[in-house]
Write a structure and sequence with these properties.
heterodimer, A: four-stranded mixed β-sheet, 6 strands, 35% helix, elongated, B: two-stranded antiparallel ribbon
């Protein structure tokens, strides 16, 4: 967590574009929130019925830990829309990003309940003390 | 029915063992949450999953409880859910993100 699920029209993005968007989203999330990059998951789908495009060519649904300000969420969504449009080669109006919040206490990742925003360092130290690396490492 | 979303890596163990996972998760849901699951499987094709901007093998299982849970109960259930998942897929608990939400949020 955060988890960013990106749905697109078929063949909207090639592999390089997906890599760049995944990099951008990771950077955007970390820059805005200060969260560690290793927390950030980005997954891509095409015409996934469970992730409605709402008339757009590309749409991201981001689930982030609860506790960020409205301004932070708006900045994340706007920057993601720009990245989608740039790498998806569409006008910004054809790209969308929505941000949902989930309490950290509802999420188990790396074998532990996720830390509250701002408490990541202690969580990571505890993980290191257990001799374990978080997901994706 | 309890809504459940499973984001899995296409062609990997969780994908190959959907039938067993479905049965095990339904047994878990009935015994621990009081109802069966309506599971939406969302496979991630190879090269389409990233963690820290790098290729990732992470899976996500997310469900919404019928009733609000206290945190001690939620943590026990989350650990059981992850243990169930690792036992059936061979994945480590570092490859799984598990969420049990209260019904008020979703």
């Amino acid at each position: 967590m955060p988890l960013y699920l990106c749905n697109t029209k078929r063949d909207q993005l090639d592999g390089q574009a997906k890599q760049r968007i995944a990099h951008d989203i990771t950077q955007i999330h970390c820059d805005v929130t200060g969260a560690p990059a290793k927390f950030v998951h980005v997954m891509f789908f095409e015409d996934a019925a469970h992730l409605p495009l709402e008339g757009k060519a590309l749409r991201v649904r981001g689930s982030i830990r609860k506790g960020r300000s409205d301004d932070q969420k708006a900045r994340i969504a706007a920057a993601i829309r720009s990245s989608l449009a740039r790498h998806g080669k569409v006008v910004t109006e054809q790209a969308d990003a929505v941000i949902q919040e989930t309490p950290a206490s509802w999420v188990l990742e790396g074998g532990e309940i996720m830390p509250e925003p701002g408490e990541e360092a202690a969580w990571l130290e505890a993980q290191a003390a257990r001799g374990q690396a978080p997901a994706g490492r | 029915m309890i809504n459940c979303l499973c984001v899995i890596q296409s062609g990997q163990s969780a994908d190959q063992r959907r039938k067993q996972l479905t049965q095990a998760m339904n047994e878990f849901a009935v015994s621990r949450l009081g109802d069966t699951l309506a599971i939406n499987w969302l496979p991630v094709s190879a090269g389409n999953g990233f963690t820290e901007g790098k290729p990732s093998s992470s899976s996500v299982v997310s469900l919404t409880a019928r009733e609000p849970l206290d945190q001690a109960q939620r943590e026990i259930l989350l650990r059981e859910l992850v243990q169930l998942w690792t036992a059936h897929t061979g994945s480590s608990d570092h490859e799984i993100v598990a969420v049990i939400a209260d019904p008020t949020q979703h």
